[in-house]
Amino acid sequence: MRIAQRTNRDAVIFEITDEFTYSTRKEFTAAVEKVKQAGCRHLILNLRLVTFIDSAGIGLIALTAQQFQIEHRTLSLVGAQGTVKQTLELANIPKMVPLYPTDEAAVARRAA
């Protein structure tokens, strides 16, 4: 997993590349903690380039969503495709975390 971070208005966007799995959990958790401590109110996980997600990756998304909700922050997902999107849908993740087609759509929705 590689995480490239950028900002769009008041949102922090994680461009995640490769696999989102149990073996990458520490990297993801550390990156989330870092942006939370920096005051991030809206985190967007761009999954467009994620090639595989396992149950640990799904669990991390669900746990992060719960933490963000408790802390009055927003978590959004963007660009999940193919089997990654199917896996997220089978786990009902879009019922917990909104899934948008683009970063701009997620930022605009949060601003509305």
The overall number of domains is 1
Helicity, as a percent range:
40-55%
Q: Major beta sheet, specifics?
A: 5 strands, mixed
**Top-tier CATH class:** Alpha Beta
Strand order of the largest sheet: 1-2-3-4-5
By secondary-structure content and strand pairing, the structural class works out as alpha/beta
- The geometry reads as globular
CATH fold-level topology:
Transcription Regulator spoIIAA
% residues in beta strands: 25-35%
The SSE order reads EEHEHEHHEH
Report the CATH superfamily: STAS domain
Task: Report mean pLDDT, rounded to a whole number.
Answer: 94
**What is the CA-based Rg, rounded?**
13 Å
Secondary structure tally: strands: 5
Task: Record the SSE blueprint.
Blueprint: E1 2-8, E2 11-20, H1 25-37, E3 42-53, H2 55-70, E4 74-78, H3 82-90, H4 93-96, E5 99-100, H5 103-111
Parallel strand pairs: 2-3, 3-4, 4-5
Antiparallel strand pairs: 1-2
Helix pairs in contact: 1-2
Write a short abstract of this structure.
With 112 residues, the protein is an alpha/beta fold. The chain contains five helices and five strands; from the N terminus they run ββαβαβααβα.
Structural key phrases:
5 helices; globular; 112 residues; 46% helix; alpha/beta; Transcription Regulator spoIIAA; 5-stranded mixed sheet
Question: How does this structure look, described?
Answer:
- The chain is α/β, with parallel strands linked by helices.
- The chain has one domain: STAS domain (Transcription Regulator spoIIAA).
- It contains five helices and five strands.
- Helix 1 (25-37) runs parallel beside helix 2.
- The longest helix is centred in the middle third of the chain and has 16 residues, at 55-70.
- The protein is globular.
- The model has no long low-confidence stretch (mean pLDDT 94).
- It holds the Pfam family STAS.
- InterPro entries: Anti-sigma_ant, STAS_dom, STAS_dom_sf.
- Belongs to the anti-sigma-factor antagonist family.
